[in-house]
Amino acid sequence: MNPVLAEIYSTIFPAAPYVIGAYALIFLVLFVFVFITLRGLKKTEQQMALLEEAVAEKAAN
Length: 61
Prior knowledge:
61 residues
């Protein structure tokens, strides 16, 4: 192996677990954010459906 490449790899490989951990943490945070957002969207859609029913009943009277 080229000595220059060996030197580069010896400085990069020890940091690999930290880089992998950082990416895993970012994906986990992103997943939690999307889950919370979708849950809030579902609740909002339910509230809008109830509001539409109430408006329809009020208009019928």
